Amino acid sequence: MSTSKVVSQRDYEAVLASHEAGMAQAAREFNQKHNLPVAFYGQVVDQDDRPLPNAHVTAAVLANHVTPDNRDITQAKTQADRATRGDGRFEITDLTGDSVNIDSISKEGYEVEPMARVYNIQSGSVEQPTVFRMWSTNIHEPLIAGEKSFVVIPDGRRYAIDLLKGTISEGDQGDLVAWIKRPDPVDRGQRYDWSCEVAMPGGGLAGSDQYGMFRAPEGGYTNVFEFQERANVDGWGGSTGDKRFYVQLHNGQMYGRIVVQLYADYHGKQPGMIRLSYAVNPSGSRLLR
Length: 289
Description:
- This protein has 2 domains: 36-136, Sandwich (Immunoglobulin-like), CATH 2.60.40.10; 144-281, no CATH class.
- It is built from 1 helix and 22 strands.
- The protein has one helix at residues 9-33, and strands spanning 36-37, 39-45, 56-66, 73-79, 82-83, 89-92, 96-97, 99-106, 110-112, 118-119, 122-123, 130-136, 144-151, 159-162, 167-170, 176-181, 194-199, 204-207, 224-229, 243-249, 254-263, 273-281.
- The strands form 5 sheets. Strands 2, 6, 9, 11 and 12 form a 5-stranded mixed beta sheet that branches.
- The longest helix is centred in the N-terminal third of the chain and has 25 residues, at 9-33.
- The mean pLDDT is 88.
């Protein structure tokens, strides 16, 4: 014999009120967590790391608010434009929000180096500000640049790339030599162990996380970048993702930069692929702009 309990209107209203109170509390906690005091410290410098005064920084602070019923999120945007002082510094410290967007940096006679656009609300410090670099508009070098996608066979065979000509051929006589190795055949969506390598015979590679990459370093180069992906790792993927390097070539007589991505299986459409963007200064200068 089964029994059922009839919920009274008073009990229902109590449960509903408790639920609404919980939703409101969750909304308050979200709003507090995602809207904190901004402490953003920046400095604008030129290509030689000298402070740039009177540079105009166009910025915005974004604040996110969830409604008390926890159903909708609204976003507020507050402009926070600044001009750099004599030491090139500026700060944003009088607002609350969730992120700081640097929309533009401008100064007559200069161009800003490529940069990230979105920053944490607590970025840099008084002692170590976030640095933004600008380059004089009259500094340009005759670069050899291009973007290429090369289909390759991923069985470990070596491919030589000539960065000055933008060509590829099988072998190990090139500015850049790369190979990819994976099992064959593989099914779409299948995981497998694979590996690849990029080498600079007679030169070197120096990894970078910069956006602009306008001046190659004098030292810190190695000959080989190696990559291995195991089938059982979390976040397994069939490509290396973008890898950024400064490069030395022709026995250190030239400098350049590359962004390279190697695919063990290009979405099931091609056996394998090397995607490459590059810029080389044939004059021997380390300037890459």
